[in-house]
Write a structure and sequence with these properties.
Oligomer: single chain
Strand order of the largest sheet: 12-11-13-14-10-15-18
Shape: globular
Number of helices: 23
Helix content: 40-55%
Strand content: 15-25%
Radius of gyration: 28 Å
Largest sheet: 7 strands, mixed
């Protein structure tokens, strides 16, 4: 392919009527003042979209414009161009073609970048235009640290050798930042953050060490290594979390903060003695991402409107229920962020504190010093709060204190482990909470689950299996065959899983006068009937089926949610 010519982006957009002369002059003045790229100024000021700019460049240079979200990139091809150069030149190797290697560039008019890439690859290249934001996301996703992690694990294994080593000396010695164990952990955290993992599991088996990432709620094996490196990894992590390095017989919990690519990540660590060594699980909490607001959690619009109205009430108890890892904390933090104004005092009682929220008084429970939920909650109510968040109602005492607070002018938000919204008031009664307290303080119960979303890059139509048709008939009756369904075939964007990202499915039981009266009575069958009528069919299952019909998730994912409910 011929070397591209240097052209002026502003003039191209003017010629193609995508920009006005006035907008160009404003952007040029800002560029002169700040030195930033012109294309970025156009996008940030709303003068032109990235798609429009990329399309205009492609037309002018007579080269293709490629949407990276839809393009199937081969990971092996990507690595022909080293990550440092890919980021520096805003370029990505996409495909091997007859006329050369296809390179996607955010700015194909950058002649220096073109010459350097050609020199580096020592072969003919053909160009395509790609969006810069999509390009950076693709680079983050595809330049995995898998090979590097395996290599560092081997390096650590060789350093340890077969002789007995004082790990304490090794972990606290000079030149620590160059130690293979530190490099290995740094690469693990980099890779986990890059692929959006929520947890890292380090699990010693009989002969091998397994390191797995949890991505979108599902565990994936990242690498295997020799079992002899397990103690040094566990020890280094314990030092980072300020845990007792001599104690290997008892579980320990802690936390520490790390910086990964200029992002602050809080790491919650849990160690547990197993048959073959200490298992370590780390939960990654990205503090720089900000708290998700309620509009982004996936709650249906009408339900969200009602939920917002309920959490704005001055008093009462609102419960969010579901199993571990169903997004309850995200929903409650979303509500807290909207309630967090200068006029309100907010106190949270959590175990542990997951995200640090500015302007909110957060307390972490500590059973070792008898700082229990109930004890902190009693003290919190003497601090004159308007809103109290209780991480979990684990026992009768905590539940009763929370409900009394809700009856005496406080808004109380909390979680409970129940399968659905209707069973929650019954669960409270089973815990020994009097019926009158449930009836007078409980305002609403939100039950939720997380379903995986079909990867947009590899979504395709899907023919239902017989068992899926039968399951859908319970919601859709005879209209099952009138709809189209989708699934992901698996691609580089979703690591071959067919899923990318998750969204919540919800049901909400409002405690109206009728529901409260039924809860206060002794007839549980009557309560179930009244509560079901209040839900009006807007159940978790129905919300999941709605996502299936929108081709956002698969029937198998909706069925998985249903199985959890039946359990």
């Amino acid at each position: 392919m011929a070397r591209p010519e240097k052209i002026r982006l502003g003039e191209i957009l003017l010629q193609q009527k995508l920009l006005s002369q006035e907008q160009l002059q404003l952007a040029l003045a800002e560029q002169q003042r700040t030195g930033r790229k012109l294309g970025r100024i156009f996008v940030e000021n709303g003068f032109a979209t990235e798609d429009a700019i990329s399309g205009a460049l492609a037309r002018q240079l007579n080269i293709p414009y490629i949407n990276l979200k839809q393009y199937q990139i081969k990971p092996n091809t990507v690595r022909l161009l080293p990550e440092i150069q890919a980021r520096r030149f805003r370029a990505i190797a996409m495909d091997e073609q007859d006329d050369g290697l296809l390179i996607g560039m955010a700015d194909p008019t950058d002649l220096f970048a073109y010459d350097e890439i050609t020199r580096l690859l020592k072969r003919d290249i053909t160009l395509a235009v790609v969006n810069e934001s999509e390009l950076l996301q693709t680079i983050d996703r595809l330049y995995r640290r898998t090979t590097q992690i395996t290599g560092l694990a081997r390096e650590l294994e060789q350093e340890l050798g077969d002789t007995a080593i004082d790990f304490g000396t090794m972990a606290t010695g000079a030149g620590l930042e160059d130690a293979p164990v530190v490099k290995l952990l740094q690469s693990l955290f980099d890779d986990a953050t890059q692929v959006g993992a929520s947890d890292i599991h380090i699990e010693p088996q009989e002969k091998r060490l397994h390191i797995r990432f949890r991505i979108d709620g599902v565990l994936h094996l990242q690498t295997e290594a020799d079992i002899k490196i397990a103690p040094s990894l566990a020890l280094r992590l314990k030092l980072m979390a300020d845990l007792d390095i001599s104690e290997k017989r008892l579980p320990q919990d802690g936390r520490f903060a790390i910086k990964v690519k200029q992002q602050q990540v809080d790491v919650r660590i849990s160690t547990m003695p197993t048959q073959h060594g200490e298992s370590v699980v780390m939960r990654l909490l990205n503090q720089s991402g900000g708290i998700l607001n309620l509009d982004a959690i996936g709650m249906p619009k009408e339900m969200l409107k009602r939920f917002r109205a309920i959490v704005q009430r001055p008093n009462g108890l609102v419960l969010v229920t579901g199993p571990t890892g169903s997004g309850k904390t995200t929903t409650l933090y979303g509500a807290l962020s909207e309630l967090n104004t200068r006029e309100r005092k907010l106190i949270t009682v959590e175990d542990p504190v997951e995200y640090r929220l500015p302007g909110i008084n957060q307390v972490q429970v500590n059973d070792k010093i008898e700082l229990s939920f109930s004890r902190v909650l009693r003290s919190a109510l003497r601090q004159d709060p308007d809103v109290v968040l209780v991480g979990e109602m684990r026992d009768q005492e905590t539940a009763q204190i929370g409900m009394r607070a809700a009856m005496t002018g406080h808004l109380v938000l909390s979680t409970l482990h129940t399968n659905d919204a209707i069973s929650t008031p019954i669960r409270l009664l089973d815990m020994g909470v009097p019926g009158y307290m449930v009836a007078s303080s409980l305002q609403a119960v939100v039950a939720q689950r997380l379903v995986r979303l079909i990867c947009e890059s590899c979504s395709q139509d899907y023919a239902l299996q017989v068992n899926e048709i039968e399951w859908l008939k319970s919601e859709l009756k005879e209209t099952v065959n009138m709809h189209q369904y989708a699934h992901g075939r698996g691609c580089s964007h979703c690591n071959g899983t067919g899923f990318r990202g998750r969204v919540g499915v919800y049901e909400m039981l409002e405690i109206t006068r009728e529901v409260a009266d039924a809860a206060n009575g002794d007839d549980s069958a009557k309560f179930m009937k009244v509560a079901s009528a209040q839900l009006a069919g807007e159940t978790l299952r129905r919300h999941a089926v709605a996502l299936v019909l929108e081709k956002r998730t698969t029937v198998s994912e909706a069925m998985r949610i249903s199985t959890q409910l039946e359990d």
